[in-house]
Amino acid sequence: MKKLYILLLCMVLILTSCSQQSPIDSSKAFVEQWKNGKYDDMYGLLSESSKGKISKEDFTSRYNKIFSAIGLKDMEQTFGEEMVEKDTAYIPVDITFHTNTISSFKQSYTIPLVKEKSGWKIDWSTKLIFPSLEDDEGVYIEEVRPKRGSILDRYQNAMALDGEAYTVGAVPGSIPDKEEFAKNLGSIIEVTPDYILKQLSQKWVKDDTFVPLKSYPINISDEFKNQILAVKGVKLSSKHIITRQYPYEDTAAHITGYVQKANKEDMEKHPERGYDENSLIGRSGIERSMNDILSGKKGYTIYIKDKDKKKKSDIAKLDVEHGDNVVLSIDGELQTLSSKLLDGQKGSIVVLQPITGEVLTMASNPSYDPNPFPLGISSSQWEALSNNEDKPFVNRAISAYTPGSTLKPFIAAMGLTEGAITPHTIVEEAKNTTWRPSDEWGDRAIHRTPHPDGPVNLRNAIVWSDNIYFAWTALNLGGPNIEKYAKLYSFGVDVPFPLQVAPSQIKKGASPWIEPLVADTGYGQGEVLISPLQLASMYTVFSNNGSMVWPKLVNKTTDSEENIKSSFGRNMARNNMIDGKTNEILLAALIDTVEDPSGTAHGIKMPNIKLAAKTGTAQINEEKDKEIAWIVAFTVDQTENPLLVCIALEVPANQGAIKIDIAKKIFETYYNR
Question: Are 440 and 523 within one domain?
Answer without folding.
Answer: yes
